[in-house]
Design a protein that fits this description.
ABC_transpr_LolD-like; transmembrane transporter activity; six-stranded mixed β-sheet; binds adenosine-5'-triphosphate; nucleotide-binding; globular
């Protein structure tokens, strides 16, 4: 049994109870091994949790479980006190966004790839980001040289990962599950990405769970380790998370973005 609760006194934004996941098995008997079970997790609005652990320990599986994307996993999930079962899977995934390790950027331009989610029914009524908002976001994460008209298939892995992150974050999720978004980046760009996501989390009350293999960057409020099916947590006493906006010189969020955040929050 692993438990992780960031005890701030407030109601958690995301509650995970009794999460379990089994490994795939080709056998038809009951020999499917458990990757983890009995994991509880509470994360509050604006908090940043780093999820670490050995390769294969189940970090991605836990994130996809929380995103309701993992058929091998089960959990009782609530968001803002609303049971996941009272939302469609699409509604849940719009609010609890999973950013996969491998980026998938359909469309013929970077802009098309970023605004694509706005064609989804679950985003109906949401105002899509304009060119300037996309430009500002690209600039903030070290992609000043990437034009909005660039074919996304021509991007490097690290560039594509950042574009994919921007696409997820500009949908204003309440929870962002970022699976090794900084894995292929140099230290400077990894820091820019960390600061951009942390800044967004603080400004908009987004909870951020990051799977990372890099050294701690000081932005997390806590570091949770998943190993041998158990989750343990160490709060970070003096995280720089609250100062994340200091080295980050992006413009204030646009009014349209703030309005959209409110709409998505409903
Ligand atoms: N789609 C899948 N079908 C079957 N088994 C899977 C699937 N995805 C992952 N697994 C298995 O689940 C276990 C946990 O994998 P997972 O990717 O969650 O670990 P991880 O901690 O994220 O690893 P890494 O740090 O290497 O990315 C592994 O044994 C893996 O082989």
């Amino acid at each position: 049994m692993g438990n992780f609760t960031m005890d701030t006194g407030a109601t958690p934004l995301l509650q995970v109870r009794d999460a379990s996941c089994r490994a795939a098995s080709s056998s038809t008997d009951d020999s499917e091994a458990s990757i983890f079970r009995g994991i509880d997790l509470d994360v509050h609005a604006g908090q940043i949790l780093d999820l670490v652990g050995p390769s294969g320990s189940g970090k991605s599986s836990l994130l996809t479980c929380i995103a309701r994307l993992n058929p091998r996993a089960n959990a009782h999930l609530t968001l803002d006190g609303v049971d996941a079962n009272d939302m469609s899977v699409e509604q849940w995934r719009t609010r609890v966004a999973y950013l996969p390790q491998k980026s998938l950027l359909p469309g013929s331009t970077v802009k098309e790839a970023i605004v694509l989610p706005y064609t989804f029914a679950s985003m109906h009524g949401a105002q899509r980001p304009d060119d300037q908002q996309i430009r500002d976001a690209l600039d903030a994460v070290g992609l000043a040289d990437v034009e909005l008209t660039r074919d996304p298939h021509d991007l490097s892995g690290g560039q594509a990962a950042r574009v994919s992150m921007i696409r997820s974050i500009l949908m204003f999720p309440k929870v962002l599950l970022a699976d090794e978004v900084d894995a292929g980046l140099d230290d400077t760009n990894a820091w820019l990405v960390g600061v951009y996501m942390a800044d967004f989390a603080h400004r908009h009350g987004m909870a951020l769970i990051r799977v990372r293999h890099r050294a701690p960057d000081g932005l997390a409020d806590a570091i949770a380790t998943l190993a041998e099916g158990r989750l343990t947590v160490e709060p970070v006493e003096s995280s720089h998370a609250a100062d994340a906006s200091q080295p980050h010189d992006t413009a204030e969020p646009q009014t349209a973005q703030s309005e959209q955040a409110e709409r998505n929050a409903q």
